Amino acid sequence: MKQRINELKERFASELSKVTDKQSLEELRLSFLSKKGQVSLLMQELAKIPNEQKKEAGQLINSFKQEVSARFDQKLEEMKKLEEECLINSAESYDESLPENIKKGSYHPITLVQRELEDIFGSMGFDVEDYSEIVDDYHCFEALNIPKFHPARDMQDTYYLSTRNQLLKSHTSAAQNSIMHKYGKLLKENGRPIRAVFPGRCFRNEAIDACHENTFFQMEGIMIDKDISISNLIYFMKTMLSEVFERDVTVRLRPGFFPFVEPGFELDIQCSICGGKGCPSCKNSGWLELCPCGMIHPNVLKYGGINSEEDPYEYTGFAFGLGLTRLAMMKYGVKDIRTFNEGDLRALSQFVSR
Ligand code: FA5
Predict the structure, then answer these.
(1) pTM surpassing 0.85?
(2) Most informative mutation of 234, 283, 326 for ligand 1 (most atoms within 8 A of CB)
(3) Residue 317 and residue 229: Cα distance in Å, rounded?
């Protein structure tokens, strides 16, 4: 009996290794485990052998049966997994009724401009930082010189969480304080200027229209070192705009108030949808607020651990808060900002990276 089982084991192993599809696997299973299969034949033979050998022979047959069935299950699992992988990798896993041009997928236009800007600022020595979407009141407002009940908070009403004084960040400036703490030591001990951009999703309880969303993207940038001035700020803004648009765009710089910069500016872009005549995309003004900026307020530098009370102007810096979603509107000529969040593939799949 032992020899017979060993022969069957070998036969089974060799036949199993040749199996390539589920049907032949099932046939093999039946030939071993069905009522007329090899294991049943062994059981019939068991009846004929002397009583004193039955116990041992019975155990051998049982363990053979268990081994065979375990190896079938294992093989079946392997085949299913392989089948799934093939399906995922093959075109068959896609819905054939989808139009050809959207089968491939494409980057969201905001991702495209964000990456482009990261490259531009990266080439000018800026680090690219990531930051949380949930922040606390201190980082979003107080560290930015906006104390509780300051009227500037009205412009940035957002969504508050019921726990730990947290909220969805209303602007990327919320990361300024953490970035200053992160790189301040390198600045002071090694003289390495702080140069960082931090893109991110922002949220505001906003009346939505063609140029306002309640969820939109900004990219913040800061540069801090000794003797940083408004000329540095203007240089970086000009370089950024000419690289992004690769064509002449008309911009204007006017005074703007933000408690965390002094002086502060609004950098507007002439609406590329109407060419400055006025349309719903620019609220009929011909201009779109794109990138407010300014010199970082001494209080903000102090809260960020950069300057001391005694020498509040030891280091100076600029900051800007670029409206990424609006930039994408202007760059791609998208009339309505809501197009970016609607998830309509007919619109979104038109954008391709350079
Ligand atoms: C701010 O958010 C400041 N934190 C920017 C800043 C940073 C100023 C550093 C000075 C120094 P503001 O609320 O204006 O500012 O928003 C900045 C830009 O984000 C706007 O110019 C606009 O392009 C974009 N933006 C603001 N609100 C919306 C909105 N609801 N939908 C789409 N884009 C918006």
Answers:
(1) no
(2) 326
(3) 7
